[in-house]
Design goal:
This protein is of the alpha/beta class. It is built from 6 helices and 6 strands.
């Protein structure tokens, strides 16, 4: 983390097309006073607030992911179900959290990528029908806890890095 990274506030990036926790992110971001980018390839209604910015990107595979990966910096938080985007966020020094509260880390991302590849292979052979379990209250609760813990951790990390410069 550079001195410039320490001086800037944490920003939150939501991979918004199918994100079920946008409202929760808005509330937590407001509590901490954080800028939030809601990134999608279609118009999504967002609250009118100076720290919430809607970003509509062109349609196409991974265009929203590319925008997020290009803008996320050390200390930022990326909300996504997309494992390759989570990997790119981690490579940029950002934190990555899935809407169900799963926190991606440098230690866990490799196995998540491998598991994703295995599941794609099984689905392509017709071995699995259906999708993930429905999103529920427990997922929402885990997400809120993970988001709060991540923001607190990134703020502490930035303060420590700032004290060292």
């Amino acid at each position: 983390m550079t001195a410039a990274d320490c001086d800037r506030a944490i920003e939150i990036f939501i991979d918004a097309d199918a994100c079920p926790v946008k409202d929760e992110v808005y509330k937590v971001a407001q509590r901490y006073g954080l800028k939030t980018y809601v990134v999608a390839n279609a118009f999504i209604l967002v609250p009118k607030h100076p720290r919430i910015e809607r970003v509509v990107v062109d349609a196409g595979p991974d265009i929203a992911d590319d925008w997020i990966a290009e803008h996320a910096r050390p200390g930022d938080v990326v909300i996504t179900n997309d494992i390759p985007l989570a990997e790119r966020a981690l490579a940029a020094g950002a934190a990555a959290i899935a809407p169900n509260g799963r926190v991606f880390t440098p230690d866990s991302i490799g196995s998540a990528i491998a598991q994703r590849a295995i599941m794609e292979q099984i689905r392509s052979t017709g071995g699995i029908a259906g999708g993930p379990a429905p999103f529920g209250k427990a997922d929402r609760s885990r997400f809120l806890q993970a988001l709060d813990e991540t923001i607190t951790r990134e703020r502490r990390r930035a303060r420590r890095a700032g004290a060292q410069t």
